[in-house]
Description:
Strand order of the largest sheet of chain B: 17-19-14-20-21-22
Radius of gyration of chain B: 21 Å
Structural class of chain A: mainly alpha
Number of strands of chain A: 3
Oligomer: heterodimer
Helix content of chain B: 10-25%
Distance between the termini of chain B: 45 Å
Amino acid sequence: xxxxxxxxxPSVKEVYKDIIFVNGTFLDVLINVRDLVHKxxxxxxxxxxxxxxxxxxxxxxxIVRNKTNEINKDHIEVIENSIYSYxxxxxxxxxxxxxxxxxxxxxxxLLKSALDEFKSIxxx
Amino acid sequence: xxxxxxxxxxxxxxxGNKTHVNNGTLIVNxxxxxxxxxxxxxxxxxxxxxxxxGEKVRIIPVKDVIEPRVKIEGKGHGFAGVxxxxxxxxxxxxxxxYGAAVVTVGDIVGFQEGVIDMWGEGAKWTPFSxxxxxxxxxxxxxxxxxxxxxxxxxxxxxxxxxxxxxAGRNVEPEEVLTYExxxxxxxxxxxxxxxxxxxxxxxxxxxxxxxxxxYGVNSQNIxxxxxxxxxxxxxxxxxxxxxxACDKITTYQHQNNSVILDLYAQHGKTIxxxxxxxxxxxxxxxxxxxxxxxxxxxxxxxxxDGVIISEEGYGNPDSDLLMICKRLEKENIKTVLITDECxxxxxxxxxxxxxxxxxxxxxSTGNVSHVVTLxxxxxxxxxxxxxxxxxxxxxxxxxxxxxxxxELNAVIGATSExxxxxxxxxxx
Lengths: 124, 428
C-alpha cells in the first residue's frame, strides 16, 4: 500500500486499516497533514472539500502518499493555503456538531470516491 | 446546430383538474403529478406546493431548481439519457414555461441548507424568488442509502419539470429565441478577424451530494469534454449536488447558462464563440492535474485566443480554477475567471483558497460570507427544522421573534459563479 489516510473520523477507522488516526478536530487533521508534507509525504487528495458546508464538518479525511526522500514544495503550498483558508472560513463559525453523524457519513463517502479515483491509476 | 427556445410567459401557478396553460397561468393537476413521481419505488411520499413571488413563504432545504420545457421538434425528450432514451441534443424547437420553476426539497442530510425566500430581504439574494415555483417535496422509503436518496430526488425533479413542460406543447410562444452556431470551419470563414473564445465550465465532481451529470453520465468519470453551447441550453447538463447552496449551479442555471447566453450575444460581433468545455473538479491532485492539462489541450486544439472559466463550489476547486488559468496564460491564451469570494464578514480576507499572479482578470460574483437578516416567514415549505441548521453556527444568529441571521452561502444561487444573479463585490 503506497498511501495512508489521515483522519479524525471514527467511521473511517471502522472501515479502513491504513490510517493515521487523529484524536482531534478538522484543523488538527490539517496540521497533522502539513507536518507530514513537510517531512516528504505528498498529498493524494486535496485537503479541503468543494463546498463551504464541508468546512463546517467536524470530520475530515485526507489521503497522503507514503514518505519519499523529496519534499514537494507545491504540496506544501497547497496544505498551507488550505489551513489559511480553513481558518479564514471558520472565523466566527463553530464546527457543526449537531449533524456530526451525517458529516461522518459524507466524509466516508467522499473518501471512498477519492480512493476510487486514485486507485484506478495507482493501485498496482 | 440550430435551437429555438420559444418562451411561453408564466405569471402564476394554480392547482386544478387538468394540467395546462391558460392565459399565462400554469394549472397543475397535483394528484396526477404525485402519481407519476410515485412510480419510482424509492419514493414513499410526495408533497407539492406553490410559492409565488411576493408571498411570505420560505422554501428550505432546496436541492435543485429546474425549468419546465417540452421539445416540440427535433430529438431528445425531457432530459435525454436520464428521464428518456439518450439522443443528440442541441437542435430543434423547445417550448419553455418561462417564469415557472420546479423546486425540489428533500432532507438528504441534516446539514443541508439552501433557502429561497419569496419576499423581502431574502428575495433580493436569490433569482428563484422571481419565478413561480412548484415545490416538490420527496420523502423516500425507509432505509434508502444516501446516494439512492439523492438520485430519487434528482430524478423526481427532472420528471416533474418534464411533466409540467408537456403543458406547453400546443401553446403558441410569445417570444422565440434562436441559437445557431455552425461548424468551426463555417464560423471561421464568416468571422476570420474575430478573436476565438471558448468557455470552460467547471463542475463539482467529487462523490455523494457533490456530482454533476452530462447526458446522465457522472462527470466524475469523464475527461474534460467539448459541447456545442446548444447542448447545454437543451437539457444536457444536470446538477446532482446540493451542499454548496450559494454557488451550486442548479439545473435551471445550466438550462439558462448566463455565460453561454452572453457569449452567444457577442458571437459574430466581437468574438467567435468556439464552444463549451465541461471540466470536472476532482478530489485528487493527480486528477486535477490531468483534467487541467486536458482542458488546456482542448483549448489549444481549438486554437482559441481567449477563455472564460467559471468555477463551481469553493475550497479545493479554487486550485483547479487557478491551475487552468496559469496553464492557459503560459500558452499565451488570455483568461477571464468567474468566481465568488469567501472573504469574511467584513470582506477583508483573502477571497480564494488559492492565488496566482496570472489571474489578472477575475469577475467576482459576491462574498459568500456576507451576513443577511431574514425575517420570519408566514409559511415554510419543506422542513422547518432545517432553519435551525441555517441559523446555527454562531451566537445570536436566531433571535426571539424568529428572525435569522445567516451568511449568503445558505441562499440558493446567491453567488452563482456563472453570474445568474445580481450580486458582485465593489472595491473601496
